[in-house]
Amino acid sequence: xxxxxxxxxxxxxxxxxxxxxxxxxxxxxxxxxxxxxxxxxxxxxxxxxxxxxxxxxxxxxxxxxxxxxxxxxxxxxxxxxxxxxxxxxxxxxxxxxxxxxxxxxxxxxxxxxxxxxxxxxxxxxxxxxxxxxxxxxxxxxxxxxxxxxxxxxxxxxxxxxxxxxxxxxxxxxxxxxxxxxxxxxxxxxxxxxxxxxxxxxxxxxxxxxxxxxxxxxxxxxxxxxxxxxxxxxxxxxxxxxxxxxxxxxxxxxxxxxxxxxxxxxxxxxxxxxxxxxxxxxxxxxxxxxxxxxxxxxxxxxxxxxxxxxxxxxxxxxxxxxxxxxxxxxxxxxxxxxxxxxxxxxxxxxxxxxxxxxxxxxxxxxxxxxxxxxxxxxxxxxxxxxxxxxxxxxxxxxxxxxxxxxxxxxxxxxxxxxxxxxxxxxxxxxxxxxxxxxxxxxxxxxxxxxxxxxxxxxxxxxxxxxxxxxxxxxxxxxxxxxxx
Length: 483
What we know:
483 residues, mainly alpha, 3-stranded antiparallel β-sheet, 19 helices
């Protein structure tokens, strides 16, 4: 790829980082890294009504947690600052006035009341609202007079009256629109701040941005951006529009409807590197069967040509599976350190060997936040139903379970040492003596010890964890329940 690649992530500080934002940041980062370029962070805060205090810190924290280190930005500086749009206000006004001089923009002094009436009239006639260019032909004298009188104004882009505008998108190919469909959009608002559509074009050019990644909802706006680039005589960047992320039910993901943000997923016990890996595959394919990628591997293999036009489905089951794969690769010490945060919420000080518990949990854990519900039986045996003793595969029912527990009790009371191998040997030896399958002894014991259908470990591993006294007590309770 010729030239120096420069990409930018330009979020609005609105409170949180939704998954679509993270994917945009990730793809921008990967394009830059793949081609040895620079990844820039720019804060687009010109929409002051949506600004949420502390949001910029959320953006910094998210990028850091995800491992997406930017090369330039508000916190790092760089040769193209400032990197916060509200600090660049004078720049936008300067370029808007240049555009007026070039004949591609004009002052508009229409009041809110006039515009509201125009919109109402369009609705009454069943027409799509479009500004009627009421102020397009004002004379220089009229404009100067109104400016001197302090009449509020906006600056609008003057769209071509005829013809078409086309642009090339790296994902969607050639997109063409009739210029007659384009409204004279506002570039500078009445508060002097630029609209998103104007500011991002000016900033992308001045910051030397070569690739722009954004959601496909901006496809219809891109011709307007291209007309601005052409008006100034500037090079147009490579556009990479990505598909919508949807739920399995087919609706667009929304924080308002309870879909998780990046922060939510991390707080729920998902590993950042697993989330990043998962998000990379939301609408992108490496062209192979490989699904587990480190960030470094993604930097080497990411290719724009692998981005799909089809909506990407946010499948929580797949994310859980992928997170489990990452958990199993963790060093045992690191898993124990992280899991211990969840033990403290669930386990009383009963002398449980938490290192042993971690060894049982690591191969069975998909998300750390599942741990409390996986180990809650350790503190208190749940009031389970005896139907839990029914296990078709091992041909075990309540009657067999009762026989097995009665036989296992004296064996467990005298087993030495109290550790998994000895306990397993004792109980499988008992099964052999009784002419039973191992599972016809082990399943009832595991059920009596946990009161759960799924546990972090088998019967003898749980027995070792609980200790002899608690194991015997629970076996006796199981016998009582089945009798």
